[in-house]
């Protein structure tokens, strides 16, 4: 249904238009288009709202397609009576009719805001394709011919599946042309030519002492994709994005690097590293890339960006030991045995004495040396003989073992014993090395290599797009896909920074202009806008009883003085409690200490302390326990600091940062915008919300995800936030209780301000384009349902903020600085490389002094406030200056930044809960909770519920 109330329907003939190669381009043009954003070149978008056909829905057929994230708890899609709206309007529908919404179109043109223009290069490479091309999709089912063990099919590794597929294609190269197909390593093959369907037998040679393995490969036709459909979508003549076509083309673009490079997730890395990437200790930094296809205003584009990752070097095991273990000498091997086992256990190797593609995992070392190991084998005549391992390699492989008096590597697998000399093993390629295990020198070098300046990153990107192993190979050309090797040239705008509000030492409010080049400001001779009076606070000095006692008195004096200089009236602490760092490892002891400090402070000050300063000698994993106990059980705001950073002569900036965090946590205001927020401050109260989900690590398969929603609780400053944190199902991206959480924040706002906010602007983090439908048709509906139950009808805008993308902006030439400079803060890009007709833009809101600045991609999904592009961009840019922890603009809009911090706090709470058994929590305050802690499962909200005394404070910053 469009804005005029006309119902939109989609007939079966729409899809049939693309079933033949000879179909002509559809000619029903959409009237004239309107310009977007009011600046630079005109950006086209639909004048009328257009209907969409439910491209976000997932069926059983969709579930097998690459790139789909199936949602186990998703409601069934409607079969009839479904309408999709791209423009929001208040229209009444029959009660049983389900309305579905699609992302918003670009807004109409308004007068442009004043801004200077910059010439940019963007790492989007235009892609042309033959619209007559048909891509055939096949399902390939590979299984072992041998009987199933224990009635469960054997799960084949991705490497084995690739090997089987390559063998099938090489044995039948006429029927299965390798250069005309792309394979995802699992069940999907895409082909530019028809493939024969059926079942084929494939034999793969195993180890020399084992029989060949036989597999059955069943190839079944699934679907046909006509690229004419994609052309129609890019031209604006098709309502729904053909995601299946884009996914198939994306896989085609990945085929060439997948065959020639190391694949890690969606990234590709070369087989060998450059000399400059050597991190020593058998590890090197490999520079690779990630790429994806994007529909943009200029057409289809390939976005490619480089990345760096640490891998083990491909080298002999003995060379690895000499490089990895300081002073290693293979002569007195027994001296280094423990270090060798620790360095090699779990490492994958290849053998060099025979041809094989198999990798082996090192289980350890043999107890005996090489010369002492013998084994029995059956001769061709059927006799059992015993042979020494040294003689075995000499007789069978004509290899004379050099190091006979050292152990062998144990490469056994299940019941198959394999002992191989170290000198005949090489470290296998493609083994990631955890960066947290790197030594300090290697860690620093890896960080430096991971953050190349713009001119170096730009060169790397251009080299990779032109590389023979990159995405632009013969395979993509055989599918009729060609890539322009030059970056997209375009003109961007640079917005002026907003004027800020600070105060003088005597409390007078003043206007502060921000440095336009770096968008930062200093507080020398200035005060915060609203300094919180701190009369009751206490200290725990966690290293006071160690062997080398540190005097914290000078630090306390300087902190009080710095706070007072900033307009934060801080009195003397109530007391300083001495403790040791070892208490962090004892949760019961830490709990008792914190409860005693709180009770003691209540006795001295007759009420709870405003905050607790925790001085630590070093970082400690017990930090999570401290935060969980204080923020969920006792109700204490804490501020931790490291003594070695605080107690140095030149620490004024560190002290200022501490003061800003303390003031914000206690409800003060550090900085405010001098002028009203653009286009939203005319009437009524406004609340800015941020929502994010923190997921567990990839190897964690059971821990819950944690969702956080934060919201402003003051107006018009809009710089104080309250947070709500909840656990939910493992790796579930949908915020199941977003309506309840937002309503809690609205009620908090009403209690503090006497009125509910009439306007809500929600920033959603962490969702991809394929999840926009979920945000609009599940989260938004839950939000509206929760509001309607409370008779609350605010206007709502929903904006997705994305940082996980490959788009990078580069200055063209030396026009605005040297060739290594980043784009200036405030740079806006909303033409050429953005969506063909939806409402999105890129904003680089921070000054990049390290590496290459990465803009944030903002995508407007829902807007009842009718923002123009310019006003919304200015609004978001202004919010980036209200982040309380620093005196500069940040790279991500503040509500999302805070939501990310709050969601991570939930993760810390969970780790603290799950690391402690009921027996370790003997404190009286945990007597009730501890009895059921062992059966917490993952989602017991009561263990993560914030204490009433801190839930409306900014404890998370």
Topology:
Layout: H1 13-16, H2 60-63, E1 82-85, E2 98-101, E3 115-122, E4 124-129, E5 134-144, H3 158-171, E6 181-183, E7 188-191, E8 198-204, E9 213-226, H4 227-235, H5 243-260, E10 262-264, E11 267-269, E12 283-296, E13 299-312, H6 317-324, H7 337-344, E14 348-351, E15 360-361, E16 364-369, E17 374-378, E18 384-388, H8 389-397, E19 407-410, E20 419-420, E21 425-427, H9 440-450, H10 454-466, H11 474-478, E22 481-483, E23 488-495, E24 500-503, E25 509-512, E26 537-541, H12 553-565, E27 576-578, H13 587-605, E28 611-616, H14 623-634, E29 638-642, H15 643-646, H16 652-665, E30 672-673, E31 686-694, E32 705-712, E33 721-728, H17 738-753, E34 759-765, H18 772-789, E35 795-802, E36 809-811, E37 827-829, E38 840-844, E39 856-863, H19 869-879, H20 894-914, H21 927-930
Helix pairs in contact: 12-16, 13-14, 14-20, 17-18
Pfam family, one: Piwi
GO biological process, one term: regulation of translation
GO molecular function: RNA binding
Specify the structural class. alpha+beta
**Mind telling me the CATH superfamily name of one domain?**
Response regulator
Shape: globular
Quote the distance from N terminus to C terminus.
45 Å
Helical residues, percent: 10-25%
Numbering strands along the chain, what is their spatial order in the largest sheet? 33-32-31-34-35-39-38-37-23-3-36
Low-confidence stretches: 1-13, 20-97, 815-819, 919-938
Q: Please outline the major beta sheet.
A: 11 strands, mixed
Q: Tell me, what is the CATH class of one domain?
A: Alpha Beta
The averaged pLDDT comes out at 85
Our estimate of the beta-strand percent is 15-25%
Total DSSP E strands? 39
CATH-defined architecture of one domain: 3-Layer(aba) Sandwich
Radius of gyration over alpha carbons?
Answer: 32 Å
Q: Count of DSSP helices?
A: 21
CATH topology category name of one domain: Rossmann fold
